[in-house]
Amino acid sequence: MRSPSLRLLSPAFAALALAACGPAATEGNGPVSPAKGAPTGGRLSSDAVPGGGNNLLRNSTFDDGTSLPWTTSWTAPAEGKAAIKREAFCLSIKNRGQNPWDAQIRHREMVIRKGHTYTVKFRAWASRPTRVRPKVGMSGPPYGEYWASTIDLKSQPQTFAGAFVMNGNNDPTAELAFHMGGNLASEGDGLEVCFDDIHLDDPDFTPPPKPPAIKHPSVRVNQVGYFPSLFKKAIVKNVATSPLPWELVGEGGGTVASGNTAVFGDEPLAGEHVHTVDFSSFNKPGERYILKVAGEGSYPFDIGKTLYSRLKYDALAYFYHNRSGIEIAMPHAGREDLARPAGHTGDKSVPCMPGSGCS
User: Fold this and answer.
1) How many CA atoms lie within 13 A of 252 on its CB side?
2) From CA 285, how far away is CA 228, in angstroms rounded?
3) Bond preceding residue 69 cis, omega within 30 of 0
4) Which residues are bridge partners to 131 per DSSP?
5) Could you tell me the pTM of the whole model?
6) If phi over 0 gives left and psi between -120 and 50 gives alpha, with beta otherwise, what is residue 197?
7) 351 contacts 357 by C-beta, under 8 angstroms
8) 115, 41 in Cβ contact below 8 A?
């Protein structure tokens, strides 16, 4: 299949001729193929920019100064950092790495459905001419792709748009990613790539209703809990300029400790006026304690010696589930839905560590 090409709509805008599935795609640490059943749709002319629809992305404009749920991914030796600049999501690339996917941003937790037509549209620019590879595909092994393209960025913002039809099976964990490392990135130091107004639209997608706003307590504790013999501190959001009485309530509802807050004052990073509570002198183990200040209670928490007893097992499970070259199998996976086949089994570009004895 021919690679997608770029056609200008105007000096400031460009339409991306999106092949629904490009040539052999790449992801992770090695080459992969487009997903089985991936579309083979063709090209878009400059006068046939696709229509929009309901956006699957939960953050498109970055107007609130945050990038989540977008995340960055760096594979050594690639390195850099991301920031919101002028209400755009910008990636500063210090080391471009070896592969296109070594420096990337991605948005996950979307469902791409069979038979639906999707429009990809975004604005992008860079501190100097460079290339970027946007793609829609699987977020895990075998990393099949439903659409991918390679575009050329300039220092002036350009708008790219195009469409593809999903002919593969429904993917409940798809991702939209922008690869910009390896030989895609132009040589030199201090490369910055920025994105804004990103859309992955589906006219047949019905956005879920926004969840009801949750009012979190103004009395903030470590809701995991505290060790009996160590310090126990909490933060209270309150505009009062004088100390306030506090009480620690046990599971039965009785007061087990009390005292007064200490006024900390304005916390500029949080934009709040806060107090602190130190109840370190209370050391009786128990469950579902609640700290109350000015008529408001904290989330329940425990006091005990075994709060983090499972931490070492959870940490080991994390490293096991993130292995790529072996099967993640039961019973070690913990749940059937977490099991999966090995990924990158044909990739030999990363050698074994000398002396490890592996082949």
Assistant:
1) 4
2) 6
3) yes
4) 152
5) 0.57
6) left
7) no
8) no
Please tell me what DSSP assigns to residue 60: S
3-class secondary structure, 321? helix
For residues 71 and 176, give the distance between their C-alpha atoms in angstroms, rounded to a whole number.
Answer: 11
Amino acid identity, residue 235? I
Q: Which tokens sit at 42?
A: 């063709």
CA dist 78 and 93 (Å) reads: 8
Q: Which helix (H) or strand (E) holds 313?
A: helix 311-321
Quick check: 185 and 96 in contact, CB under 8 A? yes
| Pairing verdict, β 130-138 and 151-153 | antiparallel
DSSP structure string for 243-258:
--EEEEE-TTS-EEEE
Residue 242 neighbours by CB under 8 Å, 6+ apart: 263
Gap between the Cα atoms of 244 and 292, Å rounded: 10
Return the number of other C-beta atoms located less than 10 Å from residue 37's C-beta: 13
The two three-digit tokens of residue 234, written as one number: 């909490």
Digitized pLDDT (tens) for each residue of the chain, 359 residues in all: 333 333 333 333 333 433 333 323 333 333 333 333 333 333 332 333 444 579 999 999 999 888 999 999 999 999 999 999 989 999 999 999 999 999 999 999 899 999 999 999 999 999 999 999 999 999 988 888 999 999 999 999 999 999 999 998 999 889 999 999 999 999 988 899 999 999 999 998 887 787 788 889 999 999 889 999 999 999 999 999 999 999 999 998 999 999 999 999 998 878 899 999 999 999 999 999 999 999 999 999 999 999 999 999 999 999 999 888 889 999 999 899 889 888 777 766 667 788 888 77
Rounded Cα distance, 183 and 48, in Å: 31
Q: Can you tell me the distance from the alpha carbon of 318 to that of 68, in angstroms, rounded to the nearest whole number? A: 22
Residue type, 196: D
